[in-house]
Amino acid sequence: MRVPARKTVGLLAVCAALSSGAVSYAARAEEVTAETEYTEKLPVMGAHWTLVATDNNAYTLYDGDKGKILGTVPADFEANLAVSSDRHTYYVATTMWTRGDHGDREDFLQAYDARTLDLTKEIAIPARALSVFKQQSLGLSNDGHWAYVFDMTPTTRVSVVDLHSGKVATDIDIPGCALEFPWAKGGFSSLCGDGSLTNVAYDGGTPKITHSHPFFDANEAPVFEQSPSDTKNGIAYFITYDGKVFETKLGPDAQPAASWGLTEAAGMKPAGRGVQEMTWRPGGSEPFAFNAAQHRLYVLMHVGNYWTHKDPAKQVWVFDTQAHKLVNRIDLPEVARAISVSQDASPQIYAVSGSNHDAGKLIVVDTVTGKVLHSLEAGARPMSVVAGM
Amino acid sequence: MTSRSVFDQFSERVTRGLARFSSRRSVLGAMGTAAVAQAFPLLPVARAAETSLTEFELKAQTKDPLRCDYWRHCAIDGVLCGCCGGGIHSCPPGSQPSPVSWIGTCRNPDDGKSYVIAYRDCCGRTTCQAPESCDCNTADRELPIYRPQNSNDIIWCFGTASQRYHCSTAALIGSAD
Q1: Where are the domains positioned within chain A?
Q2: Which end of chain B has less neighbouring CB within 10 Å, N or C?
Q3: Between 3.40.140.10, 3.40.50.1820, 2.130.10.10, 3.40.50.360, what CATH number should domain A43-385 receive?
Q4: Is A153 touching B (CB cutoff 8 A)?
């Protein structure tokens, strides 16, 4: 095709413009370094970090100071998570079916590296108990040797997993009893339906089982399943629906000390069991937390009648467990159903807002100033875990 | 599975026993202690004769079973199957009723009498996504997991094809007075 001279000039102009554009792109390309994709790593677990059960079938790791997500640990149906005492490993006890809602059921204890969040070990375990989140369904020994997984089929057992060999070491029947509260070393105790404890001494070899005397009325004033522990020292604080605290050094001869009352520690009369007796009561899905270094017990407290042990609360009461005294009352910006508390000298409360089963916020509160540091749309379920619990 | 059939039998025994003897609390208490002391130390019979009413009982209604304050829901924890294509004692299509359950004792405000309610879960499908008003968590005389027959935190899908929780029902199984 013959190109008219006028058009030829025009084309040349376009070519020149294009080539000068290409030059300028090339020049810019020399100035910019192409980004490479990589995966973040985490430092050692911070004192103010918490893992919160979240909507997406996971535990979401938060930095409580910054109010930011640091990473995600996968966890399926009603999974429990525990942090190793050296903070190097997150253990998740979880349950899956090969085809989602059907197929073969598989139960695992999974180990995640706390710095890379890589799955490092996956240990098949017997069918664990499936219930609303309970920290007391999964425990670890302080020496890092054993994991205790509560099973219910519906007979009750605890599977003891050898974390060194990566195998289930033994299954221990705990008939009429449930959950596990690890000792400082070499065993765990379970709460029983007759108001006693079953104590299981096990450090390899043959388990030795003993029973405490009954110390609470399981029908009328049962001990909360979510009763907190000082895991390092193997001391449990068994708390009844009517607010009595039984401090118990766990071991083969575990025997609870004389009880003290939450409301009495606040200078009030004892909380009774009246169904029309409005008073301050503990309640929620995870209503208790304990800071061992400061001997402080944190309790979600609400005003209600008896049998409101699942009600959420807008206040956290802080008790000195040595003096048996209320030392602080911390207001929350909205009702919460679960709390945990960091284990350092400037503790933060991690509260999950809301009631029933809806997704809640993660509310971070400074216990020293009482200030709300963060209120985060977290899709949170009523369970948060910190290191050293 | 052996454990399944054993538990089925146990469940049937408990349920039939409750229906037959539920007016005789002392007999039940003794039976519970003697017969199943290890697994389930006491049978879940209500303190139906209590003179004062719980907060739930004071507010309970008998007209709308799709609300948490319906009288049978005094100790339910979960999504109401009636909101999910099922009913007060039926499972939504595709899901399976659990053969065992936890037990509550609820007062019907119309006749002032108490009844034993079996809260059976419907299983084998992922959790029903019903409105929040259908998601209930009441706790009259609800006990911890070491008293499993009275504990509503447990996923009761034992003995079903899959233990996936879908929703909860509230079947009437007998008088508690």
Answers
A1: 43-385
A2: N
A3: 2.130.10.10
A4: yes
